[in-house]
Amino acid sequence: MAEPRATTTPPPPARLLPVAVLLWLAGVYLRVPVLVAPPLAPFISDELALSQALTGALTTLPILMLAVGSMPGALSIARIGPRNTLALAMVIMVIGSAGRGLVPDTLSLMIASAVMGFGVSMMQPALPALLPRWLEPHHLALGSAIYMNGMLMGEFIGAGITLPVLMPLLDNSWRATLMAWSLPALLVAAALFLPKRDRARPVRKPAWLPDWHNPLTLRLGLLLGLSGTLFFGLNAYMANLLESQGQLDKLPEALFWYNLAQVAASLIMLKMARRWVGRSEVIATLASIAIIGAIVAVVASGWWSIISATLMSLVAGMLLILLVAIPPLVVSASETGRLSAGTFLVGYTVAFVVPMTGGLVADWTGDARHALLIMIGYGLLVLPLAFTLDLERKKGQPES
Q1: Chain centroid to CA 63
Q2: Domains annotated on the chain, with CATH
């Protein structure tokens, strides 16, 4: 049964802190289980004898599941509400993520990774759908920035400190490291039921399938694919790129700065969310800069390549927040989960297919840079969409 709609006056800002903390922690687990894979990939590959494409699939397969699970997530939101969906999804995510640390072979590793990605995929539309039920309308942009800050912090925490901090504490075991990152999410899932503010009336025959007549579903999805393709793709093939440049020894530092840039992006957006969210010209500018940064990362070498990749990560992070924050602003609360799910379906399908295609090309040519060139080509193809977005706000929604 869906949860009843709030009928009381929203609490003062001081009482929003527990909700903000929960949104932030849930955001962390949108990326921690996905982004621990790149730093652990060399160790997993050595033990299980993975090819270059399968090594990339440790990151890109969960991205595919982010697309596959978006529709079940939307259906679950319509039937049991966004909070119940978020809690259920986190449990599924933990089962798959922790299970990766127990697998005996490549097939079971990929199955566990798919289950983990499916759980994360259900979390993604649940969070923006929860915002209108937990926050006042003029706090929606800030709420998006808060959980996206948690998500991007999760990218840094998972990818940036796994090798230098956590893994040495666990006897350099990639299996124990995966378990240690995963299990605390169960506590977050339980804590989601502490707030008493999610009160949505049941909706008869709720709509949950993507509205393909709404041009934003496809446009936002393709642009989300641009951000995801560049960020996840370069993250997945960072080790291969550095190895081709003869600087594999710089991998820990490169991943650290690459993912720290996502933290900087989230902090910038906490400050700028009310000014930038819903501005198509900002989206177009950031998308252009992200593509340029990726190009320089491929054609340059040494630290210039790493610096350019880090710049791309920073800009792609800001672009991601801007895109994900749009649905609660431009459609009604009942339609937010539907638009978000459709956007994620398109965006993460692209973010899987394009990097995976690039990996297959790289396996064929023997040059990791070709994988990145495929991703850059996609970005150039869809960039014009950023310049023609129509982001008219829903009636009654305050301007940022």
Answers
A1: 8
A2: 16-190+208-386 (1.20.1250.20)
